[in-house]
Design brief:
alpha+beta, about 30% strand, three-stranded antiparallel sheet
């Protein structure tokens, strides 16, 4: 089975689309359409583009409103939900709190729903910036920990229109989304082989498993150092050395892997108990980890080959 790989730079990383079993020309056209969709999502969500919807929301004054598209509504709604469910360990407004003077006591982190309100106007949606209470942080939205996953979800939806239902989409080294049985899989367990649990040459947990109609996202300190901030303290995350999350939505997996870096192991355990659709792996040492909701992952894990004696 021919496997075609295509790459494209966007969102400060390299996206990949891997399509098996299709004519190369057709696969290339479908991948180009997917990359165009990723570029469109970047134009909506980039905090570095002053014309993006996210930048324009940040500049709203109290009580001012801005018409927005359904993509912004969906992503802000997901960000608010994850923030609530993780006890504030994920926060797309973390930069505003971190920018406060270190001499001032930290403000209570505000849920996104306390800072902005999304209203349905009949003809569409608009975001309204609420009046800020005394001591509340300003608004400085950064979707870097969820936007790449959302772009993968959007690209996957577009590829369905191209009848491409067996594909792997990759957003750099952070998030991967697999749909279909994978390349040349004929056994009872099918999917795209992906890695989880490996950092600095040390592997904890399954090492890899098969991803089918699901996303896997990972966060850690190996590549970018201590870049993940705990929104609750404004300091670098101390919860885990690395974390992976799997979910049918790449945007949700993207956000959760960041939150699991911040959360304590017990907090991750309680979150996964409430959300059986989420698989999680957190490293608590160089070769030690905790895995939650392992049953779903075990069904997709590649069988280990026995060594011949």
């Amino acid at each position: 089975m021919p496997v075609h790989r295509f790459a494209h730079e966007a969102m400060a990383t390299v996206f990949e689309v891997i399509i098996p079993g299709k004519d190369e020309t057709y696969a290339g056209q479908a991948a180009r359409a997917a990359f165009d969709e990723i570029d469109r999502i970047e134009r909506l969500f980039s905090r570095f583009d002053p014309s993006s919807e996210i930048s324009r929301i940040t500049r709203l004054g109290p009580g001012e409103a801005l018409p927005v598209g359904v993509e912004t509504v969906h992503l802000l709604g997901l960000a608010s939900f994850v923030q609530l469910e993780t006890g504030g360990a994920f926060d797309v407004n973390f930069r505003a709190a971190a920018a406060r003077s270190p001499r001032r006591p930290p403000a209570r982190p505000r849920n996104l729903g306390e800072l902005i309100r999304i209203e349905h106007t009949g003809g569409g949606f608009e975001v309204v910036r609420l009046r800020r209470g005394r001591g509340a942080p300003a608004l400085d939205l950064d979707l870097g920990a969820v936007g790449k996953g959302f772009a993968l979800d959007s690209a996957r939806a577009l590829l369905r229109d191209w009848a491409v239902d067996n594909v792997l989409l990759n957003a750099g080294t952070s998030t991967v989304l697999g749909t279909g049985p994978g390349p040349g899989r004929t056994g009872p367990v099918k999917g795209w082989p992906v890695g989880a649990g490996s950092t600095a040459g040390a592997t904890a947990g399954p090492g890899r498993f098969l991803l089918r109609n699901e996303a896997l996202s990972g966060s850690g300190t190996e590549v970018k150092g201590e870049h993940v901030v705990d929104p609750r303290t404004g300091r670098p995350a101390r919860g885990h050395g690395a974390a992976w999350a799997s979910h049918p939505s790449a945007a949700a997996a993207d956000a959760l892997s960041t939150a699991f870096m911040v959360m304590k192991t017990g907090e991750v355990a309680r979150f996964c108990a409430r959300h059986p659709e989420v698989w999680a792996l957190v490293k608590i040492g160089p070769e030690k980890c905790r895995i939650f909701n392992a049953g779903a992952a075990a069904a997709q894990r590649p069988a280990r080959r026995r060594r011949r004696r």
